[in-house]
Amino acid sequence: MSDPLDLYPFLSGQRKDAKDEQAALLESVRRKAAHSVEVKQRFFEDNAEALIACARDVAACYRDGGRMFTMGNGGSSCDAAHLAVEFQHPVTAGRPALPAMNLTMDVPMCTAVSNDVGFRHIFVRQLQAHARKGDVLVGFSTSGNSDNLMEAYVKAKELGMLRVGFAGGDGGDMLRSGLLDHCLVVETDSIHRTQEVHVACYHILWDLVHTILADDRGRIGSGAAASAVQSQTPSSDAALGAAPAKGTAS
């Protein structure tokens, strides 16, 4: 076992050697980068077909006029926001904007529900207000055990929504519950590596969905899906991809 004084030299009044510290930091970068690559390669080797199957189902939802709702906590809420932006604001020319709403974006709504009925209900209440049969719900959790996500998946099943999850570790409740149609699990205990794979995974998912919908581009985004956006409340219009006014910065 390492001597605590070796790990924290200031405890004994010593100072770190600058060259030794630089070498240790460089080795840390190398190891973390190599581990990140290793985890990504293993995940996609094991889950490529599952990812394609998920993309086909998400594309089918959009083809039928459905919309996407995303959710997560902490860093995973950032992934939920990122995924919603990817679908609302495609960066590749020729790909239509598709309706996607991040359920963590409305701070007054989340805090009101948390204060009045409990944090586990913050996503359920929003699904009750906005979601319908044929929509898709995507959740992110590095443990797979977030109570508010699981409550939302129960409601999503009742509503007839497609249910997709990105998890880490052993998949937790997201995998074991049987509530999800697709659960993509990054089998590592590292939260950082899990989130890094999630980013790569949903970027590929976005690309696959658009590839599958290539023959529908004249209709998707300007037909059924667009009318679905217009039927939302004003605050949700912005959330689901309403175009910014001409001349505004994005």
Provide a quick synopsis of the model.
The protein is an alpha/beta fold. It has ten helices and five strands; from the N terminus they run H-H-E-H-E-H-H-E-H-E-H-E-H-H-H. Helix 2 runs parallel beside helix 8.
What features would you highlight for this structure?
disordered C terminus, 10 helices, globular, alpha/beta, Rossmann fold, five-stranded parallel beta sheet
Helix content: 40-55%
What's the name of the CATH homologous superfamily of the domain at 64-237?
Glucose-6-phosphate isomerase like protein, domain 1
Q: What is the overall pLDDT average?
A: 87
% residues in beta strands: 5-15%
Tertiary shape: globular
Strands, count: 5
CATH architecture assignment name of the domain at 64-237: 3-Layer(aba) Sandwich
Task: Report the end-to-end length measured between terminal Cα atoms.
Answer: 53 Å
Element order: H for helix, E for strand: HHEHEHHEHEHEHHH
Low-confidence stretches: 223-250
Radius of gyration: 21 Å
Q: Please identify the top-level CATH class of the domain at 64-237.
A: Alpha Beta
Largest sheet: 5 strands, parallel
Across the major sheet, the strand order is 2-1-3-4-5
Query: What count of helical segments does DSSP give?
Result: 10
CATH topology of the domain at 64-237: Rossmann fold
